[in-house]
Structure formats: structure tokens, C-alpha cells
Design a protein that fits this description.
Blueprint: H1 7-17, E1 25-30, E2 34-39, E3 46-47, E4 51-52, H2 54-73, E5 80-88, E6 98-107, E7 111-120, E8 126-135
Antiparallel strand pairs: 1-2, 2-6, 3-4, 5-8, 6-7, 7-8
Keywords: Hydrolase
InterPro entries: HotDog_dom_sf, PAAI_dom, Thioestr_dom
Protein name: Hotdog fold thioesterase
């Protein structure tokens, strides 16, 4: 399936609909099959001990799958998270940005499922793994016409 939005269009759309956090998340790379996103780690993303907080990592995984769905479905898709599974594998580096490597496992008419590996920038070892499921609004519904 071809992309409905390219990297720049997706970045602009995320900035429009999420102005409160658009500086936290950056679309690094986008293909028909995958997206790479960056969490620009700042003080608000850290927890005691100098490591990236779990909620910040979850947010990166969540926005990565959401962005991949939007890139494939386009602006009309108001996907909502319905399920998630998150495995913390090792301590992330507090002084490094987080990188998410995401791919869609399924993109159907009503459900999307994505798999995400999270890394500390500069490391090849994943710090977390997430699987996210999204409900997609029916075509023609008010929710599907968001944006």
C-alpha cells in the first residue's frame, strides 16, 4: 500500500494536531512499511536515576504507530489505541535521545497493529519493545473525517 502522506506532510500534520508535543517527537524516516521516530529527550522525560521514564517511552511507541497509520491512511483517520503490550528490556541512557523503529503488522479496515523497538541513540541494543493495537473509525463516520 502506498503512503497517503510523505515524511514532510506527516510532520506538518502532527504539528497541527498536537502543537503541545510536536517538538518532542521527530519523524526521522518514513517508508511504505516502516517509520523511524525520535524522542528528543529533555528533563521532563527523565525520572530519578537519570533514565528515560516509562511514560515517555510509551508515548514514543504510541505516537510512532499512530503516525505510521496516518501516513498510510491519511488525515481522515482518527485512530485510537485499544490495546498495548510493553516490555522493558534494559535501562535507557538518560543523556541520549530515544529512537523508535516501527512497522505495521496489520492495517485493516477497523484495526491496525504495530510493533516498535525502542533504542537509546547510538546503541544497537533495544531498551524496550511494544505492540500497539488501534481501532480505526468506519469510513464516512464523523471521527474518520478528523483533520
Amino acid at each position: 500500500m502506498a503512503l497517503a502522506m510523505n515524511r514532510d506532510e506527516l510532520s506538518q500534520y502532527l504539528k497541527e494536531v498536537f502543537p503541545q508535543v510536536h517538538k518532542d517527537f521527530v519523524v526521522e524516516d518514513l517508508t511504505e512499511d516502516s517509520i523511524t521516530m525520535r524522542l528528543v529527550v529533555q528533563d521532563q522525560h527523565l525520572r530519578p536515576g537519570g533514565t528515560v521514564s516509562g511514560p515517555s517511552m510509551f508515548g514514543l511507541a504510541d505516537v510512532s504507530v499512530y503516525a505510521m497509520v496516518l501516513a498510510r491512511k491519511g488525515r481522515q483517520s482518527l485512530a485510537v489505541t485499544t490495546n498495548s503490550s510493553f516490555d522493558f528490556l534494559r535501562k535507557p541512557e538518560g543523556g541520549a535521545d530515544m529512537i523508535a523503529a516501527c512497522r505495521l503488522l496489520k492495517l485493516g479496515k477497523t484495526l491496525a497493529v504495530g510493533d516498535v523497538l525502542l533504542y537509546s541513540e547510538g546503541s544497537d541494543l533495544p531498551v524496550a519493545r511494544a505492540t500497539m493495537t488501534y481501532s480505526l473509525p468506519p469510513a464516512g463516520s464523523a471521527a474518520a473525517n478528523f483533520g
